Amino acid sequence: MNALIAVPLQSTTTTSQPFANVEIPTLLLSGIVWVPTIVALALLLFPDRTDAHRARLRSVALTAVGLVAALGVLMWYGFRDQGATFAYEEKRNWMQALGTSYHLGVDGVSMPVLLLSTILFLTAVLASYRVRDRVKEYFFFLLLLETGVNGVLSSLDYLLFFLFWGMQLVPAFFLIGTWGGGPRRLQVAWKYLAFGLVSSGLLLLAILVTAARAPSHTFDIPTLHDAHLPVAVATLAFFLFLGAFALQLPVFPLHTGFVDAQSEAPAPVAAVLAGVVTKLGAYGLIRVNLGEFQDVLHKFRVPLLALALLTIIWPAVAALRQDDLRRLIGYVVVSRLGFLVLATVSAQPVAVNGGVVLMVADGLSAGALIYLAASLIERTNTRSVRAMGGLASRMPRGAVLWIFAALASIGLPGLAGFVGQFLVFLGAYSADRKATTIALLGVLLTAGVLVWTIQRLFFGPLPESLGSVRDLGSLELSYTITLVSLIFLIGIVPGFMLLDNVNFGVLTLLTRGTG
Amino acid sequence: MKTLGNLLVFSPELWLLAGAIVVFLLGRAQEDARPGVLLALLAVVGAFFALATQLRSTLLILDGAFVLDGYAKFFDVVFLAATALVLVMTLTSAGTNDAPAASFPAFLLLATLGALLATSAAEMVSLFVGLELLSVGIVLIAVLGRRSVASAQAGIIYLVSSLAGGAVLLYGLAVAYGLTGQTNLRAVGAALSERSPSEPAVLLALVLLVAGFALMLAFVPFHWWLAESFAGAPLPALAFVASVGIGAAFAVFGRLMQSAFAPTSVGFATVLAVLAAVTMTYGSLAALSQTSIRRLLAYLTIAQVGYGLAAVAAIQRGGANALLLFVLTLAIGNLGACWALLAYSRGIDSDRLADLTGMSRYAPTLALVAALSLASIAGLPPLAGFFGKVFVLQAAVQAGLGWLAVVAVANLMLLAFAVLRVMRMAYLDRATFEIDPIPLGRPVAAGLGVTAAAVVALAIFLGPLYAAASAGASTLGH
Description:
Oligomer: heterodimer
Helix content of chain B: over 70%
Strand content of chain A: under 5%
Order of helices and strands of chain B: HHHEEHHHHHHHHHHHHHHHHH
Number of domains of chain A: 2
Number of strands of chain A: 2
Radius of gyration of chain B: 21 Å
Structural class of chain A: mainly alpha
Structural class of chain B: mainly alpha
Shape of chain A: globular
Largest interface: A-B, 33 and 30 residues
Largest sheet of chain B: 2 strands, antiparallel
Largest sheet of chain A: 2 strands, antiparallel
Low-confidence stretches of chain B: none
Order of helices and strands of chain A: HHHEEHHHHHHHHHHHHHHHHH
Radius of gyration of chain A: 22 Å
Number of strands of chain B: 2
Helix content of chain A: over 70%
Mean pLDDT of chain B: 90
Strand order of the largest sheet of chain A: 1-2
Strand order of the largest sheet of chain B: 1-2
Distance between the termini of chain A: 34 Å
């Protein structure tokens, strides 16, 4: 219950801060966004012929994501009590006459996800040691993907937001289509691209409609949040945005492309996709659909709630029947994303707070589960859950880490998932009791799936063919332990880690959206 | 004094003319095109500086037959820069059997001269003369750019289509003159605005004028010549058509529509919007299924013409601005894509798209430039073409053509598919054959580098460019 104390207190938090009087250089956000691209372009100049060359490419990429993660942690440390404004704001003239500027900034909603992104990309580069083919291009696209994701999270201008949105799509396509594992990888990559392109198209239309019909012709997100749009235009823009973000999320019934991508993509890419690229959809829902069009959201609450519930329940049921380990995790991830839709639709501060925490928590646990699953699959040479069993005796470290990551996904108290999930339910229950009760059923389902999977993977008799399986190596431990220890930290001291900073952003967003 | 003053204002054009004459004379003395290219580059640089001295004010020349306003000057700068790149491009095949004729740079300069004249023409006769000079120049460079039957064929196809386009355009201009008794475009606009917009003669003039430009700009269903001539044209001629040729026709079309029809209540916007939707959809659908490199470039160009047309359709309400920036990004993207893909296609001696596999291994520079330029053509952010298309979309939405914006966005997805397919072949598919790496001369590599840098870095300079385009667009309206 410690977790909850932070909730009522945070709006008045004015503890001493280390950076209170220090002018933080305003290039930090630009750095976090553009460093990966600059390094990616530099990578193109490196040779890629011998193993030594490839090792050097790897360490350059690692330095880049490490630097970005360090910037992320530094910014998080300096990010305390920013009040109603955006932190680390950068605003440069770009095309004034068009009403667009190079405007970056983060608040309590985007900063935690941005931090999650930098950490997940760090682990993704670490986990990419299996990639031996066309290493240069691989890291080029992975770094470009990071720029896209971080850019979406820190843009405060719609044109810029769209620019980064497009930048995260193409690298993902290449990463799945080229370095994916299965024979279907190309087909899956095209499908992923098709979904993504439709999403981008809707987003572009939404942005053009919003900017064209706003009283002041501008693409600036904070300015537009305060603007009044005619009801018809607002409804149209709301649904265009909703379509774009729902495709990215993905909601039921559009999740099949994502689950396919989960099973075909290389593990680091799958972890980044499930951990943070999908969260861009949820972030968009909160930032735009909730932050800007709250009135419209209230009007269409019931169908949207139904959508959220379907997204929670359906993939959970599908996961029950799933034997492919990677697909199973994919379904669980989609089901968990449904809670984010629920939190958004309920439009309660507590629930949205929970949603932001849940994004981070699920991102961490999804990443850990995907990495561990990849390690299991590599060792056992099978993706079938049924073919595994009794692995706890052979890989105790793997089993312990998996169990913690899975329990965090279930929402066990003391782990990160619990805080987010509890707050979402607390908020959503006051908004709609029936829907929340049904959503609880979804929690039970995913919990059932994950516990059952633990039992099937790690306990029971060990098949003879798996008698010589090794435990996790130190490299694998390095990134999985990073993620699992963060899951613990957030679970134990959520206020310190996240909530204090999230709440102000959420409250500001919600009051703005009603204006 | 007045004559001299008028001549001085023509100094950029005079530089090009002088350059052409010197290159002709030089061509009598020797066969190699390289010294001529160098001289022609000097002439373009001279023209550029001459233009730079005139950037300040709007100049009326020869009693208003030409008007050197911000609109014309923006285009002129784009065309001169594109011509300079095309000149460097001719060096791609210099010193081989395939080299262009010695007089090639001279005709290129004359074609550019035509483009500059047409862009600033404010009156029917000067407009027609400028466009004809451009067309004749293009026919000649298509024929002289390479010693092959295919390029002669391309030249003839271009000749036929430009003759037909010119004839229809001339009919349209004649009808407009007959209706109004004026040759100055603004005077025509003023006179037309007093007539009923549904008068058959007014509509006939509109239809003929649009049909003339449909032939010149390859609107669907008048696009056949573009694909056919691209299939055989030599690289510099093809790139010139895809950047300056189409850009100049758009410049004239935009001015004509804005001056002569925007003041009236003739519903030309809807007509153009429908044509734009058809053209961009046809172009991007066709681009999806091409197996030839040259035809792919042709259909990508046709699709882009559709986007430019959308800007012209929105010209009554701020589309001029989008048109200026769109033509700039179109020129950059097309130059890079044509250059890189055709240089590689020449190196492997194949026009098959499937033979692009291995491009990143045998010609990494060409592959990078091709990938960036194609991505720009498809409007992938954050490259130049993305902004060009966003401006067009924004103009369309603001002009109340929301449906056209929806069609245009849908086509962006198709274009992305078409282009990513090629990029995947060039970068990720296994090569099906072994060849030696394709060498690039230093000037060619430098030119490719400039093009690629323009594709990537345009976003950074968009602020001043947008301001210049806005200023240019506002001079068109007054």
